[in-house]
Amino acid sequence: MDIDEALLEAEDKMIKTCADYDGFLKGVRTGQASVEVFDRVHVDIPAYGGIVPLKSVAVISRQDASMIIIKPFDPKTLKEIEKAISAADIGITPTNDGKILRCAFPAMSEERRKQTVKAIKERLEQHKISLRNERKDALKHIEENKGKAGVSEDALAKGKDDVQALVKQYEGQLDTAFEKKSKEIMTV
To answer: Which of 40, 52, 57, 121 is deepest in the core (most CB within 10 A)?
Structure first.
């Protein structure tokens, strides 16, 4: 693998790492109702071919700052959807009125907000470790080019500097996403 391929592969993996963290943050509860919390919910409905995402069997909408309404396309699937939301462990207990599900988002206590910020910070660190591992792999691939014909010491050094710049860039993106979400969580 030449230097450019190593850089492209490393950047691709770093982009995926940042996207994974963003996806995780979307599912984290804040003090307000958010339809993104339900992105992780999957429903087992045999008529739909087994386990499917909630948003493919129901309309999910925000009624107000503390209430989400879930209206299934097929009213017969209401019980399965209710069961899936309860099993998803997102801290929401749906109320079934026979036609729709109402999901009230209770206000988070100060202690719960701090615990949530701590949890997303731990996940941030895991993703930063992933970035550093990707840097390590890229540097190893770049180092394999040492001594090959047409590869100068300057090209190797530039490749290593480029990898470090990528890590800084994507760590910055992770930090920005963390700061934004933690501010959102701590806002009452």
So the answer is: 57
